[in-house]
């Protein structure tokens, strides 16, 4: 029996280089933040009973910790504690990081090219990888509600 080698399938990507302001502090996003941690989070979240709020919060914190640069985690949590941040506030941060790390565009590029690049099926202008992933949480109204609340808070902040 012979083995068939598919060759190199990986495409190296540059580390994430994103920061955000958090109560006067500049917080770095983890260099490897992105989809794999989100997939791990969603897999764990599916296994949590929808009445188990403690486990939901613990898994959300663990996910957020993968998205923030370890050098800034203590600064992030100290500022969150000092400013009485709640679960929905932390969800808003996690969602914003995942959106910023999304590997596909959802709008027109800023350059002056002749048109949009061919990126596959067209997505709604308000779509994101977070929304798609959260749609996969069938049977988890608690997590869906938390994400919806975070989205509403973000919209209110933008207004």
Helix content bin: 40-55%
N to C succession of SSEs = EEHHHHHH
* Largest sheet: number of strands, sense, barrel closure: 2 strands, antiparallel
Alpha-beta content class: mainly alpha
Please, how many helices? Answer: 6
Question: What's the total count of β strands?
Answer: 2
- Average pLDDT value? 77
Please report which band the strand proportion falls in: under 5%, 5-15%, 15-25%, 25-35%, 35-45% or over 45%.
5-15%
Radius of gyration, taken over Cα atoms and rounded to an integer in Å = 18 Å
Shape label: globular
> Which strand order spans the largest sheet, edge to edge or round the barrel?
1-2
- Determine the N-to-C terminus distance: 64 Å
Structural write-up:
Helix 1 (35-46) packs antiparallel against helix 2, helix 1 packs parallel to helix 5 and helix 4 (87-101) crosses helix 6. The model is unreliable at 104-109 and 117-129 (pLDDT under 50). The chain has one domain. With 159 residues, it is mainly α. The protein contains six helices and two strands; from the N terminus they run ββαααααα. A two-stranded antiparallel ribbon has the order 1-2. It is globular. It has helices spanning 35-46, 53-67, 73-82, 87-101, 129-135, 141-158, and strands spanning 19-22, 25-28.
């Amino acid at each position: 029996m012979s083995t068939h080698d598919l060759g190199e399938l990986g495409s190296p990507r540059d580390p994430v280089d994103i920061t955000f302001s958090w109560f006067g502090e500049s917080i770095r996003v983890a260099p490897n933040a992105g989809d794999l941690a989100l997939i791990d989070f969603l897999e764990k979240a599916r296994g949590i009973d929808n009445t188990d709020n403690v486990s939901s919060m613990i898994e959300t914190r663990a996910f957020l910790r993968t998205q923030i640069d370890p050098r800034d985690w203590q600064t992030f949590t100290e500022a969150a504690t000092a400013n009485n941040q709640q679960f929905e506030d932390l969800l808003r941060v996690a969602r914003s990081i995942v959106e910023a790390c999304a590997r596909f565009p959802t709008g027109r590029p800023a350059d002056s090219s002749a048109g949009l690049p061919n990126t596959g099926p067209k997505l709604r202008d308000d779509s994101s990888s977070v929304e798609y992933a959260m749609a996969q949480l069938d049977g988890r109204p608690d997590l869906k509600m938390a994400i919806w609340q975070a989205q509403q808070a973000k919209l209110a902040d933008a207004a």
